[in-house]
Amino acid sequence: MEFKSITQLKSLLDENKISVKEIAESYIKKINEKKELNIFIYFNEDKIHDQVKEIEKLPNDKTLKGIPIAVKDLFCTKNMPTTAASKILENFKPTYESFVTQKLVDQGSMFVGKTNLDEFAMGSATNTSYFGNTINPLSKNDNPLAPGGSSGGSAAAVAADFCLGATGTDTGGSIRQPASFCGVVGIKPTYGLCSRWGIAAFASSLDQAGVFSKNVKDASILLEEISGYDQRDSTSSNVQIPNFSKNLNPSLDGKIIGIPKEYTVDGISDEINEVWEQAIKSLEKKGAKIKYISLPHTKYALPTYYIIAPAEASSNLARYDGVKYGFRADDAKSLDDMYELTRSEGFGKEVKRRILIGTYVLSAGYYDAYYLKAQKVRKLIANDFVNVFLDCDLILTPTAPSAAFPLNEKQEDPIKMYLNDVFTVPASLAGIPGISIPYGKDEQGLPLGIQLLSKHYNEQEIFNAAFALEKDYE
Amino acid sequence: MKLDTNTINKIAKLARIRLSEEEAEELLRDMNSILDWVEQLNEVNTDAVEPLTNISSSILPQRKDEAKDINSTDEILKNSPDKLEGYFAVPKVVE
Q1: Which residue is closest to A322 within chain B, CA to CA?
Q2: Is the pTM here over 0.80, yes or no?
Q3: What is the complex's ipTM, to 2 decimals?
Q4: Is residue B39 situated within a structural domain?
């Protein structure tokens, strides 16, 4: 049985054409058939059946009643362990539920499992996980492809039809880039729209929860449900959350779409530029006006990000000391020994690299030259967007510089790997919302994604334009 | 070259991460190339620019500072690798 969307499955359930139990069984079967994709860090049939009993008791007006959702294993969940894909959190059982997952539970969703990710969300291919690589479900047999990252397991879970929606987090592109690689919809809302409470922290001034889905309408339904003010997160915004799905309107009459010239960078395939061109033409045809714009500080976004994110990570990850939870190294003789051995054995290579960079750029004598400088450039990058949005409603760009790349492609050079996020990082630094939707395919039939950005709290217009563009490939 | 082996080891000590010689060597190479790459930020004139510390464009409300009992000691201690009489236990620090 294949269900196309949340709306479709919900009406089947409302009309008693299917039961919550049947939904559970259908998804368990699908997941068991493709275990080799290694999409889940945690999958337990019993836990799903336990939820069925609870969900059946809920009234049908719960928006997500019986809807199968996959949860990135960075969100703390009370009934399932949470690892952040790190050895250092192996066997960690949170004593509380994250804000976002609690909201999903309250609306009756069924968690099918916890998805794989890059360790502590640090990566772009889901290949730094302690629990092994996830394989992109769109791979052909002889050539396993990466699902993107860091929320690669969640994007892959939607693409493999293991669920109808999934949670992700996006610090520099970790929702939008894997959505593009796996051919699904992924949205990172405005910084602060959903609470960070209960999400293992990576870089707190950038971390933002969001969702994956099979189509734009489902994404709007899910985002509506996970958004909202929470006093346990001091950066959570107290704003009215619009009824995104009800307000969906594909009309683009008179909308001004900005096309930034700085996003034409070297090394992007012609196919991606062609798809971008097609989307521009389509928007024009639908009544939008195209405006060529400039975001002059774009080229500094990646180096700025790779100072700020590691700096914040080095501070956030100081809490993993082997004392309170998670892994502790065995044969430590002293307390210092225990800290050092625990962290040395518990963290993977990429995480160590970022902690050390972060420690260095924050250390005495270097703080001004690196961290403070990066914060100032970040201001200029954010201002670029503020200026452009005086005349534009939306910005359209490609999501990633390539389609999904082979899993075993050696990425020895960290900077080359960081370039995956070249189109997504600027919006993260500015805290503005962005969506990636599948738009066209490359020569090998792999999906390509395009990205729509807008000003703070303007998710509705992003959804509307994405909804209009989505129709080109229906 | 910004970093040498001594600096790497000093930073690793600050971050409480023990590195093998091999790891230190590899990290030295990676970190130097990353630090050279971020150098390009010096091309940007930031003389009159305020650093961006809070990205949120809305006014962030403050909550009342009230104590709330949300977890039991027992439940929290269950996650600890070593505990003793209601406390986290660590290797001995006082002789």
Answers
A1: B81
A2: yes
A3: 0.95
A4: yes
